[in-house]
Amino acid sequence: MTIQVSTQDARTAKALELLSGADRWLKITSKLDGRRYYVVPSSDGHHLYWVRPDSCTCPDATRRGITCKHRIAAALFVARVNAERTPGRAACAGCARTSVYHKAACKGVRVPLLGRLMA
Fold it and tell me: Do 68 and 100 touch, CB atoms closer than 8 A?
């Protein structure tokens, strides 16, 4: 997934605002498939959504089928995690894990250079 960040676009600007609170997100790994989910609050703080870089439970994603601000924020978070990791150990874009054994079992897509987006 390529992420284009522009403060002129309202959706990405809101995603950047959500990303600033990523330290307060719940990070959950599913026992069923090992995939990583992030519990991200809505902009008004009244709802919580289960988010991955490729899916979200918010109304924009489920009803309108668009790439919502929550998905963009999750993808940017994974990119930031990748950028902070030791060079040469790309994390899984689906769950941000780097284990060699994990790669074969994960349903996520490996994107080794995603961290360059945060430069």
Answer: no
- Domain assignments of the chain as residue spans, ordered by start: 10-118
What are 38's two structure tokens?
A: 């992030």
pTM for the complete prediction?
0.66
From the list 106, 50, 113, the residue with the least C-alpha distance to 78 is 113
Q: What is the pLDDT along the chain (119 residues), one digit of tens a residue?
A: 566 677 778 888 888 888 888 888 989 888 888 888 999 988 888 899 999 888 899 998 889 888 889 998 998 888 888 777 766 656 666 666 655 555 555 555 444 434 444 43
Residue that has been written with the tokens 């978070």 in this structure: 77
Q: How far is CA 57 from each of CA 7, 20, 25, 85, 114, rounded to the nearest angstrom?
A: 24, 20, 15, 28, 23
